[in-house]
């Protein structure tokens, strides 16, 4: 199959596997989503949701984050990795929102990436989930799955992976594909112990085939060893 047929096959399979894939970061508005995604860098969504459950009760708007000492905010997000840097970025971000955007999160990719702690991935997540603008955010799951399935090359950087996905995936499917690739990588094609034996996309995955081949060799050796002892 050609590249278009291949991506269509992948999209259809992951749609069957994860029809309800969605953003798992709890939020109720663009501002909360921006804070949650900023906190999620090098941290699981599960941990972020535990922290924001109380954080979003205490801090409702940018002014609230600036109304406490930095040390207090650090303590409030202490369970999050890199909490000191993230606390500092949150306060800087909130100052910019107040001074430049009347306290509102900008609804543009350019405006978002100007904010401290907000990179391209975070901006894509906010644009697609908060403002319904089609986007594909390449996190570790999307990057891993794209390379395992041969959508991108192993040495491609995240921007190159994003561009290849944007070229191959129909624009109206960018956002849902982003969510489904994350679910596929988080719950099926994991970094460690991926579910290769039951993967419907194994035929497209060189790494998976190698894992299965290596596993079968180990199994055969073990069986021969047991038989020899008998």
Automatic annotation (TrEMBL):
Q: What reaction does this enzyme carry out catalytically?
A: 2'-deoxyribonucleotide-(2'-deoxyribose 5'-phosphate)-2'-deoxyribonucleotide-DNA = a 3'-end 2'-deoxyribonucleotide-(2,3-dehydro-2,3-deoxyribose 5'-phosphate)-DNA + a 5'-end 5'-phospho-2'-deoxyribonucleoside-DNA + H(+)
Q: List each copy of the HhH-GPD domain by range.
A: 39-187
Instruction: Note the InterPro entries from the entry.
Output: DNA_glycosylase, Endonuclease-III-like_CS2, Endonuclease3_FeS-loop_motif, HhH-GPD_domain, HhH_base_excis_C, HhH_motif, Nth
Coiled-coil residues are none
EC number(s) recorded for this UniProt protein: 4.2.99.18
Binding-site list for [4Fe-4S] cluster? 189, 196, 199, 205
Q: Would the keyword Lyase turn up in this protein's UniProt record? A: yes
Entry cofactors: [4Fe-4S] cluster
Tell me yes or no: is Ion transport among this UniProt entry's keywords: no
Q: How is the cofactor bound?
A: Binds 1 [4Fe-4S] cluster.
Origin, by domain of life? Bacteria
Recorded GO terms, molecular function?
Answer: class I DNA-(apurinic or apyrimidinic site) endonuclease activity
User: Which PROSITE patterns does the record cross-reference, listed alphabetically?
Assistant: ENDONUCLEASE_III_2
Question: What is this enzyme's class at the first EC digit?
Answer: lyase
- Which NCBIfam families does this UniProt record tie to the protein? nth
**Family (UniProt):** Belongs to the Nth/MutY family.
- Protein name (record): Endonuclease III
Source species: Paenibacillus harenae
Organism lineage reads as: Bacteria, Bacillati, Bacillota, Bacilli, Bacillales
């Amino acid at each position: 199959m050609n590249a278009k047929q291949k991506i269509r096959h992948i999209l259809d399979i992951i749609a069957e596997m994860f029809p309800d894939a969605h953003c798992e970061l709890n939020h109720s508005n663009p501002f909360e989503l921006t804070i949650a995604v900023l906190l999620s860098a090098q941290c699981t969504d599960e941990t972020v949701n535990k922290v924001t459950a109380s954080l979003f009760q205490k801090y409702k708007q940018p002014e609230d984050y600036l109304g406490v000492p930095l040390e207090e905010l650090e303590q409030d997000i202490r369970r999050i990795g890199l909490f000191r840097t993230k606390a500092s970025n949150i306060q800087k971000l909130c100052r910019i929102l107040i001074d430049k955007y009347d306290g509102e999160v900008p609804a543009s990719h350019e405006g978002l990436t100007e904010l401290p702690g907000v990179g391209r991935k975070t901006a894509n997540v906010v644009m697609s989930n908060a403002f319904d603008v089609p986007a594909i955010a390449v996190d570790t799951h999307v990057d891993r799955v794209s390379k395992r399935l041969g959508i991108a090359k192993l040495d491609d950087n995240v921007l190159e992976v994003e561009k290849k996905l944007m070229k191959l995936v129909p624009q109206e499917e960018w956002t849902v594909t982003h969510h489904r690739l994350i679910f596929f990588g988080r719950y099926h094609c994991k970094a460690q112990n991926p579910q290769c034996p039951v993967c419907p996309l194994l035929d497209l995955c060189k790494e998976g085939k190698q894992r299965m081949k290596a596993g079968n060799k180990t199994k055969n050796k073990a069986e021969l060893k047991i038989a020899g002892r008998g």
